[in-house]
## 1
Amino acid sequence: MKFSIIKERKNPPDRRVVFPPAMCKEVEQKYPDASIEVESSDIRFFKDEQYAQEGFMPITDVTDCEVMLGVKEVPVDALIPNKKYFFFSHTIKKAPYNRKLLQAVLAKNIELYDHETITKPSGSRLIGFGRYAGIVGAYNGFIAYGKKYNLWNMPKAEHLSNLSEMKQELDKLELPAIKICLTGNGKVAHGAKEILDHLKIKEVTIEQYLNDSFSEAVYCKIDVLDYNKRKDGQVLDKYDFYNNAGEYESNFMRFAKVTNYFIAGHFYDNSAPFLFTREDCKSEDFNIKVVADVSCDIDGPVACTIRPSTIADPIYGYDPETESEIDFMDERAIVVMAVDNLPCELPKDASEGFGEMFLEHVIPAFYNGDKDGVLERAKMTTSDGKLTERYAYLQDYVDGKE
Ligand SMILES: NC(=O)c1ccc[n+]([C@@H]2O[C@H](COP(=O)([O-])OP(=O)(O)OC[C@H]3O[C@@H](n4cnc5c(N)ncnc54)[C@H](O)[C@@H]3O)[C@@H](O)[C@H]2O)c1
């Protein structure tokens, strides 16, 4: 099987890659029937020379490869017909701006495997960049906190060469006795937790967090049943929440009352209650001043996130009174960091982490007859231009009817 590491062509340029040079070698060593061709790229974090040094001389024509491995959406005119492609297509939730992409995939008889569709039978995802989103998001939140309170000046994550340099920067901080709340229990939340734990911030129980005062910075990590409660008072499990989110109301304000810095790392389903509303932000009980919204659902569950921000300009202020944007240094401002492509700020580590997951969970499926059904579950389109059964719900989207 011939795999190609394709060049990223989306704008703004994304420097990540599925397999860094050393990992290409590892794949070929573990799977002697696998061979990898690298498409030349001048924007990748890992330079063409680095691939060449590992024995992978980059080339410009990869049409003889069968499986194309990329990160971001491939522009329609760059899609090579009759191949298998792996990339984030952002089509499974029917994003209107990618309808043409899915139409082209079908027209070109491409088998599409979206990285988001690579899951366990339970549906939980096997691969992703979430860990690095959490890591960079928590770091960026500390940058924002330092700016807002004139406490420190940290370099942007994108200017650091790797996670270890990021940790060195964090080691310089002298944290005040603040309370930090972190939501979620997936890859993002665990990535953010790595940063809090690296800073040796004490993790406390919900009871302690809500009721006690501390002389040092503390954090509390909460999940859906901590920040939501059933309207009828019953206490059931998180699966009840996942299936019946409409039966719940937010119970987040008790955290907002005591929190200085909030890191949003949860997954939000549209039928769930907002964590806090614009009205909640106006309340005297709302004390959050800095929000690192990694979840980044716009104008939704974290009401002060009124737009995504960018790596170039990551922080803005939200004025609860006017419900609009203001200078983040304004006294009234809740500081919001809502960059929606955080892992791009740490392309080396993010690529290495992603490559490890891809090697562990996806590559074996090509050589073991897909015994765990990973490829079968992930396959969205067939080589004769049809949606697979699992993704047949996208037909109306493809047809332009919704
Ligand atoms: N800002 C960025 O750059 C960036 C990057 C990656 C991910 N994200 C976002 O961060 C969020 C979390 O991503 P992740 O990688 O941690 O996801 P994940 O798949 O690793 O974890 C999701 C968690 O949510 C739980 N969950 C499942 N269904 C749920 C439901 N209906 N309601 C609430 N929770 C549910 C799961 O049990 C799991 O613990 C997502 O919204 C994702 O889009 C943002």
## 2
Amino acid sequence: MGQPVAEEVIGDVPLLAIEQLGKRFGGFVALDTVDLKVPQGQRLGLIGPNGSGKSTLVNCISGTLQNETGSVSFDGQRIDGFPAHRRARLGLARSFQLPRPFRTMTVAENVRVPLIYTVGARAGVHLTQSELEDRCMEVLSLVALQDKANKNPFDLTQVEMRKLELARAMAAEPKLLIADESMAGLSHSEVEDIVALLIRMNERGVTIIMIEHIMRAVMAFSQRLVVLVSGRKIADGAPEDVIKDKDVVGAYLGT
Ligand SMILES: Nc1ncnc2c1ncn2[C@@H]1O[C@H](COP(=O)(O)OP(=O)(O)OP(=O)(O)O)[C@@H](O)[C@H]1O
């Protein structure tokens, strides 16, 4: 509530600005002139059928893939061409659908690593050992995993593992978090739990792009909904309008 839905309402520089983004794999066009501006503080849902280009778009934003045409700007700065770790230090974090925690580390140590390599590596920042511990426990409390700090991640349940993945992303103190299918395979109440967690993170000032196929989660979370089909943005606006759009129903929701 109180959040502008469309990017045009914002006069300020958007946190993320993607312009005319294009990416091919050989002769296959995975992204075709995609434009997207995301204002600071927004909760944006990104949906589309399998293979529509959502992950490719996220990879071009986070730096694991390089776009061929167009541009990506973050916080007013052009970042396409920057390696992924540099983008992470600027405040861009993503979580993965399949969590990949370090096996030999505890839950707390898994959170400490991104803290050290992103926050601790920012210019002018020196975190003492006790500051590291405090921040680590703060992030674990945010995801309600403080009691599991000394466990091995592989002793966690599926939903706890997803929370750890989000905690690792949050440890980097991001301005933008891209949550890639954080809820796949979870029960109804676990999905609600993760949606509530993402909303709490957003309330702490983090702009969030959520990629998700579970529509009740998308609708509960999103202030704005963007639909990709065959590498093109076919709809962008208020979720309740977008899900009624006949092109969206025909290409995705009706299938
Ligand atoms: N490294 C790659 N090499 C060749 N083709 C690729 C590569 N990565 C993605 N693609 C193709 O690009 C298209 C878009 O894939 P992408 O993974 O971005 O879709 P998606 O919307 O994230 O799908 P899903 O919902 O299934 O995760 C697909 O046809 C995919 O096969």
## 3
Amino acid sequence: MNILIKNANVLLADGKVKIADIAIKDSEILAVENIPETFKAEKVIDGTDKLATAGFVNAHTHVSMTLLRSYADDMKLMDWLENKIWPIEAKMKKEDIYWGAMLGIAEMIKSGTTTFADMYGDMDQVAQACIDTDIRAVLSRGIIGVAPNGNQALEENKILFRDFNNANDGKITVMFGPHAPYTCPPDFLQKVVKASEEYNGEIHIHLAETKGEVENCLKEYGKTPIALMEEVGILDRGVLAAHCVHLTDEDIQIMKKYNVRVAHNPGSNMKLASGVAPVQQLLKAGVCVGLGTDGASSNNNLDMLEEINLATLLHKVNTLDPLAVPALEGVKMGTEYGAKAVGLNNVGLIKEGYKADIVLFDMSAPQCYPRHDLVSLLAYSMNGSMVDTVLVDGKVLLENRAFTTIDEEKIKYEANRCAMNLTLR
Ligand SMILES: CSC[C@H]1O[C@@H](n2cnc3c(O)ncnc32)[C@H](O)[C@@H]1O
Ligand SMILES: [Zn+2]
């Protein structure tokens, strides 16, 4: 379908905001500003008083964990995982994964996210939710190598790859998802490397999230998690690494050498008291850093604009440098860099030839005045509930804050029913 977005404040690829039109042909942006006279729109969207940005890329989440939102708070990572999360996840059925994913996807679309990278079990259900909502996603089957079903989980990741890589008109891609070095020992990770070579798939993994993880890794293997991944061959495969909080200077050099892409999760790292990732050093070293929410049980929402805001603030207070992660850098981490981090080259910018994944923010609220600097307003003043219109792959999924294709009330009802049943099992 040909769509014309008219007269919007457009955040352009050079970081400047200009009033412009955007022409969309099928799934792609045909032109920005200089629209060909021959372009005939079948639908016109009025962008007056709206800010148009590329859709946010949530570079690391576990979307079905929306069912566990507010279930276990104020705990450290391993206590949270071992004593609350893993026991209840063991009771989750396919239906729970599906409706948890539908709820999370609805929340993400409504707050401007158009792509997410996910790692969980029963990923065929998450893939189905992506197909039913038409969001873009990079899916991996989370694999706990030390669990009795570790080998089976790896087989399921292969099946996920076969069934869903490039599915839904290319909107779904698949990676391999070994959970972490502390749940996947080196001999198991070598099997993952082999599978990723066989399928030509990249790897999504949690790395160096807590001090305890790094200390244990040094004790057991004499190497940091990053150095261990280099030794095992994981880094040769193309890696999306979640967290990367506790890094040495040598780790950062290794990450740069192998082009490891980072999903920084400031909200989750703060809530689980994991620490502050060295984002300024990573960016300075030329490492690609995107942003993620992590799951809704450690955040506790999937609002990427909040994550952008947290990233811009956290690194200033941590380094005592007001120039740490400026507004535009935060927005790029949530869009352009996030897209690269999850392995998508034509996503994350409003630019000719890029995928038409576009968000229009309603700028009518009092906190959008005065308009000295719209990027500043986006990073420091606005919030996800100002999202008015969302397009993914040139299709309008949200218009006037309402879904065009999915039933929000049904999703909330079913997800709540699943969550309540789950706690009774
Ligand atoms: C095996 S599927 C993925 C697995 O990861 C768990 N998880 C959620 N958040 C985190 C985190 O911050 N660090 C490590 N693991 C996390 C999730 O509950 C699933 O069990
Ligand atoms: Zn995670």
## 4
Amino acid sequence: MRWNMRYFKWISSLLNGIRHMFLLGVVLLIIESLSLLFAIGLQKQLIDEVLFKENYTNFHIIVISMAFLYLIHSLLFTFGPLACHHVVAHIRFTLSKHLMLYLHKIPKDKLQKERSATFVHYFTQDIRMISRLTGEEIPNLLKEIVISLFLIFIVGYANIILLISILLFSLLNIVIGRYFAPKLKKMAKNVEKTKSELLIHSEESISSTREVIAFNRHQWELENFNRIYNRYFTAAMAEGQLVNKQMLSSEPIRWGANLSILGIGGFLVLQGQLSVGLFIVVYQYTSRLLTSFQTIFNSIMLISSRMSNVDRIREVLEGEKWNEGDKSLQSSITNIKFDHVNFKYDDNASPILRDINIELPIGKKIAFVGLSGGGKSTIVQLLARLHEPTEGNILVNNIPLNNIKRKNWMSKIAVVFQDPYLFPDTIRNNLLFGVEHISDEYLDKICKTVSIYDYIKSLKKGYDTIIGERGITLSGGQRQRIALARALLRNPEILILDEATSALDVKNEHLIQINIDKLRKDKTTIIIAHRLSTIKNADVIYLIKKGEAIEVEKPKNSEQWEFIYENIQ
Ligand SMILES: Nc1ncnc2c1ncn2[C@@H]1O[C@H](COP(=O)(O)OP(=O)(O)OP(=O)(O)O)[C@@H](O)[C@H]1O
């Protein structure tokens, strides 16, 4: 079993801030069960002292006490689990928050290697299981341990032979449980795995609906789904069959235990060693003790299997995070230099950028041009710190970029990607993207700059129009313009446009470019484009060819432009 202190330390750390509620939950669960046991215990008084002795003076006290204990039991039956639910909800929220924060700190190459549905699975399955483990399953185990100790004491006190026989039956039950446990664990793991495959597939099917329709691949998609669903169904059925077999083996033991208690207890009553009232109570207690042992065993098995969920989430949360940097960049950016920068996406892959040695002129419009796959986007991703150079450094004001506080650096730059992500929210929220204190006038001005103002105003709800997921209700060009406006609103020191206007027609692109140039006069703007028209008014042009950067002199005539044209188309 994979129990060790590290797991419990980690689980215990989840209870920070909610430990009192957890303890309250455990205590309430214990009181709830004990109150029922005490009510059962009073049956001895009722039978032996009242009914057999025909002494009715204490009858009403016993009945009232029983009613009181049942009332406590009924009340705590709801309040105990309520406290536990509170703990479950708190842990679910805290873990989801940590995972969400982690997603923003995970190195991008690591994130890209994972299917996004895997992260959805972390949120929906693993976190749910861990919160239930901590808030429900562990408190219930603690409760059962206390209850079984109490019952062992009472049954042992009534008669040691009864206790020994019930312990023997429980032992037998546990032996059977141990026989089935590894098989059940293996099957449960398989069910979990196939279920998660099914969830991931469903999630990805939803995302690929458009392609499936467009390529008329319904049948193929259905077959894929059937295949994955059948794997899950077979695993779940096999697990169900095994659970049935286990129940079939343990049921006779339960009946055997009940019969032996009846036999031994009855004999002790006839011998006068046990009163009828105590026998009736002990009979019920032994039955409960048997259940208690079974529950403890099952809980331990369950908790042990939950450790795989704990492992997965710990691996993620305690995994590699990207370098945050600790140096502040107080002043404005005066200098950006690529100093022998090499970059590989993977240790074993061939280099994408080779010995890049360039100095970006600040306050100018810089263009990166080159054939597809040359490494242009990779360069700007290094600037946006989505990746780190494998060798060499990017120096900003002579400080290695990796050492600058990420938050500090990101407040100075803004990037617009070719395929920007828009949220299923209002246009206003997509534009502001959490930036506050932007006046309506400034918002209008920026929207006019990127020629989206008239379109927004033509909408019935204007800025408050909700756009569909990923901006599905907008055209590609409108999406790009909103993304451009979002970046311009931040008025960054460095603006990076990675094919950010590629979906616009040449006329509109030209118009927007003139506006942006005016707005960003004396500010640094880096553009990546394949169209000659996009880079024509750049101050400096770098040709990125097979991972190498060469500064090309600004063409002075159409022949020289022809050379650039050949290298970008
Ligand atoms: N996340 C990634 N993991 C592995 N390789 C990648 C990744 N992103 C890009 N590449 C590879 O790096 C190389 C350069 O890609 P990059 O996107 O920088 O080129 P580009 O010049 O911007 O191309 P384009 O003009 O087509 O956008 C390509 O060979 C590409 O396959």
